[in-house]
Sequence to fold (324 residues):
Amino acid sequence: MPQASKKTVQSEIDTYQTDKVDQVSLAASQVASSTHDFPYRAPAHFLSQVDLQNPEDPLLKQVVPSKLEDVTTLGFNIDPVGDLHKNPIPGFIHKYQGRALLIASPKCDIHCRYCFRRHFPYQEHSNRRYWDKAITHIENDRSLNEIILSGGDPMSLTEKSALPLIHKIEQIAHIDTLRIHSRVPVVSPNSAWNQAFLEWAEQTRLQIVLVVHCNHANELSEETEQLFQQYRQHNIHLLNQSVLLKGVNDSVAALKQLSKALFKQAVMPYYLHQLDKVQGAAHFEVDDKTAQQLHLELRKNLPGYLVPKLVREIAGEPFKSPIT
Ligand SMILES: *Cc1c(COP(=O)(O)O)cnc(C)c1O
Ligand code: SF4
Fold:
């Protein structure tokens, strides 16, 4: 299971507000929840954005374990999106036409309590010895044109270990787009891929899309703004996906503010996901009717380009299904 990198955590704690880190860690450790398979974890930068005066802080709720995670809920299971049954090669998920996903790293810098991957047997599926198999598969499948690096979080790998994989993908002629799905740029911008990645980005023939994962405007900071600016200067397209979460962003005001704050930092809203029904996350669920009403209000309140698509992942469907 994901382990904290001691070096990163320590240097971040030095840089950021140690008192907040301590207080949140204490709160997290006091929860007598059976979270051993998905322990508390949050980067210092993310915690520096928390408002400790607010007991309902939308960032804290995403990371502090709750006893509600132990509740077994009918209809919520361990592999809600069917990923475990779609693996010709461990760590390689080809569900949709033209694009396939590679689990580049088993780790995340943050453990989002609602995560659908919380029960995923990462270690079995992200072993680097499968990378070569995945590359061979991609070389042989000309129907693919886009490779998505995902996880866990691909940016939990160093640039040095990720770039050889990226180079191999770049060498495959029928691949024209590299997409990276990462929450690191938002929750820990100082450890996001930077120099070496940007140098590569400057001269690659590939289109690069970075899908960040931001659920609330409070997650954005000056640091994220600077990072996104650098990415934009290197022609990296920036999109955001969020998950609709009860008590975190399930209001018109929060969602509107999120879209506007993202746009201000040059990130376009892409998806607003309905929660994957993973065991332990039921207390975050927003029902479809409420979700649709919120989405309708967003349409009324925002220019079309700032309204994310409201979708749900349904196992076996050929694309993310719109909620209608
Ligand atoms: C979400 C997802 C994609 C990407 O879908 P888009 O609609 O193109 O964003 C690709 N592969 C897998 C396995 C996914 O879960
Ligand atoms: S960063 Fe993404 S994959 Fe990792 S725990 Fe959070 S939601 Fe899950």
